[in-house]
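BACKBONE GEOMETRY TOKENS:
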Amino acid sequence: MAILRDRDIASLQATDRKTLYDTGIAPGSARDFARRLRLILPAGWFPAYRGDEVEDAPILQSLLTGFGAVLASIWSLMSFVRRQTRMGTTDDAFLEVAAADFFGPSGMVRLNLEKDTHFRRRMVSSLVAPLNTRAAVSEAVRRLSGAAPRIIEPGNVHDCGAWCQVGGYGASRTRYGARQGGQFFLEVYPKLPVEQRALHAAIKATKASGVIAWIRMQA
């Protein structure tokens, strides 16, 4: 980097007496685009370009800077759009759009005052999380609420017990309770602040299709 100098060719210093260096024009800025446009103009039309500080065509420079401001805005927009195309860099409302793309409109909702980093982390973990099983539902609720839920399946002997001539109460060969499958009861006491709609969305996205979940959440 070149040292910044005054008219007497003396090096410029900051208030702490450190030498100042010219870091150059910021890429993608209005000045950067104006310089690029200046350099591609046909030779002989205007005075030769000697740098912004010693510009011999100030009106031309002002005009090109205006064009450069427009191009800089487009460049900034392109950089912003590029960030939104990747899960690791998308943010704000575009993160919620990505969640709707991956999990459906109500499959993954942002918690109240949830930051982008936490919401993104939940999305990434949900993409590879197991689904459909009892353990998957339990883990999804635990990850969201901070507490493992109590799950009761009417058709599960270990939850409701059974009567059997051989094994007696609690045997695994027969059962009492509902013989119709496709439903379960879930009870959770959250340790983390969680909205009911977010809990419902997590369970809906994890449970098997067609299975009814009866949910009870205590504050």
The chain has two domains: 2-83, 129-217. The helical segments are 30-39, 58-83, 93-103, 116-127, 134-145, 157-160, 196-206. Residues 129-217 form one domain. The chain has a mean pLDDT of 82.
